[in-house]
Amino acid sequence: MKIDRRSFLTYTTAFVLGGAAGSMLSPAPWKLTDDIAIWTQNWPWTPVPEDGEVTHKKTVCTLCPCGCGIDVRLVGGRPVKIEGSTDHPVNKGSLCPKGFSGLQYLYGPARVTTPLKREGKRGEGKWKKITWDEALTAVSDKLAELRASGRPETVACIADSDQGTIPNLIGRFMTAYGSPNFLCAATAKDAVEQAIYVTQGKQGVPVFDIQNADFILSFGAGVLEGWGGPGRMLNLYGAGKSSKTIVQVEPRLSDTAAKANQWIAINPGTETALALGLANVIINESLYDKNFVENFAFGFDRWTDENGVTRDGFTAAVKGYEPAKVAQITGINQADITALARKFAKAAAPIAINGRGQGLLPGGIDESLAVLMLNALVGNINKKGGISVMPDFDYAKWPEIKIDEVASKGMQQPRVDGAGSEQFPNTRYLLNRLPEALNVAGDGVPIQALLVTDANPLYTMPDTEAAKKAFDRIPFIVSFSPYMDETASFSDYILPNHSYLERLQDVPSAAGISRQVISLSTPVVKPVYETRHIGDAFIMIAQNLGGFIKNAFPWKDYETFLKDALKEHWRNLKRKGLVELSHNPPEPLTYLFNTASGKFEFYPTAQTNGTDQPAALPAYAPVPIEGDMQRFDLVLTPYDTIRLAGGNLASAPFMTKTVDDTVLKKETSFVEINPTTARGLNLKEGATARLTTPKGEATVKVHLYDGIMPGIIAMPRGLGHTAYSVYLADKGTNVNTLIGSIADPASGLDMAWGIRAQLTRI
Amino acid sequence: MSSTDKNQTVSSEAAPEEKDSPASSTSGWAVFMFFMIGFVGSLLAGWILFPDLLYSKKEQPIDFNHAVHLDVVYDGCNSCHFFRDDGTFAGMPDLNSCVDCHQEVMTGDPEEVKFVEEYVQPGIEVPWLNHSKQPDCVFFSHAAHVIGADMSCASCHGDIGTSSHTRTYEENRLTGYSRDIWGHSISRLGKPEPGEPKPMKMNDCAKCHLEETGHKGACFQCHK
């Protein structure tokens, strides 16, 4: 048989055809087709849910200070779902979107997985992985060096809160080390606390007994946007919406305003005037609680001080705020003001609350004072459904601390932020004043080392870019954040803390409920990465520093300390997860006030600070917001929404997904603007515009919204992160970069509610 | 055969192209022969070689003796392969269940010694190879079958409970699942011997459901 080219092709074809025919009669192609289909379902990047036993672990959410109970569902030991605990007294099963998306804070790519040392320039994002020993030694060495030079007060610490044993353990460290500079960001609660202190002489946690109130007059407090603990408020709203009247006073139709019985649009920043106007009507029409005012209050009418000088009382202070004038200031109809005052005073259990949005910013002290006095007028102090003050939590027992000479000298230095100074005697922390203090001329930066624990000032501080420049003057910045947040990414060392589901921690609830609820947040999962509990890290640093500092921390780790500090509560906390200490407002009306007069002071003598200052009575003074009115014809106000986290901890990526595309579209934020105003600026829905304020500028889109007053534009807090992960960074504009801080002359607290702005079409 | 016709036509006209004639190059029987070589070859490859190539063979980490265990436990299969309180099926027991008895070596059997030394003492879970593992997209309730329909374990898994050695695990190189799912017969013809595990492809489920319940079942019953 001769095989040439043609026959070779023919035989090959025959062979292949035969092979094909044969294989069709074999199982191989059929089986392979099936197998390939299954193979495609098992590619390694296809997520497969955990399989295993389903268990539930109860713990407490620490993503914000409210302390909601959570129930974590685990499959095969892996947390897969977070829900609110139905039996927890704070939230009773309700939870906010942040709490629900909590797993992304555990497994998300924003975690810092090992200790890091900065390699490149600050904020460049070049890091070197180091061991925990290296990290702790580096920080201890720097702190030892500063202390050896006799300047321990040049070390500052910024924390997210001063409640609970972790912040207090860090505070103890600062004391033993010798620095008075432990700072927290002040919130609306600080202003209320201070108002309570100057009128009642009590320091403690303000309690708003919304649960037992039937008429809620909210001066901008976003009760459905996260004010007073979102878990708690959502639960109360769901349980009592038919039996409660909610009147929301604010310039923007927020979710709370939309759900309220009445929305009163008010010129922003004029809430104090309205509160005083309402007081004016209540006093003129004699609708106030005479029993309270006559027996338990001081400074309501004219009074004479110890020097024989006759002073004005509260009645005189509100005299100037007759409805007609208040209508002019606030832009509210005069008849509405009178009607509101009557409804408020005649309600069975009225309560007035304040604090814009979630209450992240304190606002002026006069606003809190005026609102508190409005409550006092209707006798709504220290009673069911009213405002009272709960003593500061003191369940943890601390051994006595002995400090050495260096520390005692350092502790006597004035605070860098001026809190507690002669100028601001009643204020605890003034973080907003830190950048200014850092920007002193020359090399003598008052802070040489900064420790940042769970706070993220380089995102949350107003005029963020200026704050960043000021922070850059600090030679040594250490972050203890579990996440690569803006501040961590700008630091020199990161000593990552456990994330909240991996961490043991006591949680005194800050939601403003009328009982002291202390919960124990216990780890639901072993640490996923090479992180360490912040308490352990500080104990180790203290031990490295030695001497008196080491002696102040005689525990091997945080758990040993906690067990030791909680004493009798530890067993209950371990067993039940929470301890409730009753806080019964004294009943019947046995008001106990610690003021000089022993009464509720409508004329807060404490605020005069012993001087002859007559300015103690609340008064409305327009907040001088920044910007030239000619150039900046609009006013930008930030707002809060429950779908975004605007505080120290960024939203979880899930939350960004819940935001409407009239708030954020791709990478661009929207500003809300009234259609009338937009027409004047020739802006249509969705138009791109340049937003300029005295502090910065951004490219935005506009959303025409009837729910915002003409001349005002609004942007949400919580967007525009520059760090964390690709799922959060560069999404929209951080409104904090566009606004500034204005210190209240009485308290030093930030009272800015907006900034002048300009919007030009591009 | 049009090309051959063409060739013939051409050859009758031009003698020099005689080499292209069918007789000199391609013959019918040779074409048939090559066809058959391909045909038979691929049949043999498909039926005999392919299954051997498709499956890799693995042994269990421990040669487990089911028979011995079944003798000493009081609740049959359920003693180790139990239903959890919430009704889900625990499947392969984890180390915790074994440690109840095997904290220390009990019998001195070399496999038990290996188990205690290599897994119990360091606290490592035994990476058992699961002959019955289904893909994640399949929802299967043991409770519905064992408790609800009162079926015995052996009716699907075969007489594994009385075996004294583990079987060789044959793993599909492509899918990673056990050969048992498809069934030992590569053609899926014929029935498994009594006492052998049953195949567990979707059609196997449907077939049994049709016989037992009169309906194959709906998609979402298993594919949630």
Summarize this structure as a short list of keywords or feature phrases.
heterodimer; A: about 750 residues; alpha/beta; 7-stranded mixed sheet; 6-stranded mixed β-barrel; 25 helices; 30 strands; about 20% strand; B: about 220 residues; mainly alpha; two-stranded antiparallel ribbon; 2 strands; globular; disordered N terminus
Question: Which helices and strands occur, and which strands form pairs?
Answer:
The complex is a heterodimer of chains A (762) and B (224).
Chain A: H1 5-24, H2 28-40, E1 54-60, E2 69-75, E3 78-84, H3 97-100, H4 103-107, E4 116-118, E5 127-129, H5 132-148, E6 155-159, H6 165-177, E7 182-184, H7 188-200, E8 204-208, E9 215-221, H8 230-240, E10 245-249, H9 255-259, E11 262-264, H10 271-284, H11 290-296, E12 297-298, E13 303-304, E14 310-311, H12 314-319, H13 323-330, H14 334-346, E15 350-357, H15 365-377, E16 387-391, H16 405-411, H17 434-438, E17 449-453, H18 457-460, H19 464-471, E18 476-479, E19 493-494, E20 505-508, E21 516-521, H20 534-545, H21 547-551, H22 558-566, H23 568-576, E22 578-581, E23 600-601, E24 634-639, H24 653-657, E25 664-665, E26 668-673, H25 675-680, E27 688-693, E28 696-704, E29 712-716, E30 755-761
Parallel strand pairs in A: 6-7, 6-17, 9-10, 9-15, 10-11, 12-23, 17-18, 18-19, 24-29, 26-28
Antiparallel strand pairs in A: 1-2, 2-3, 4-5, 4-19, 8-16, 13-14, 20-21, 21-22, 24-30, 25-26, 26-29, 27-28, 27-30
Helix pairs in contact in A: 5-20, 6-20, 7-15, 10-13, 10-14, 10-15, 13-14
Chain B: H1 2-13, H2 28-54, E1 55-58, H3 66-72, H4 95-102, H5 110-120, H6 142-148, H7 154-157, E2 169-172, H8 179-182, H9 202-213, H10 219-222
Antiparallel strand pairs in B: 1-2
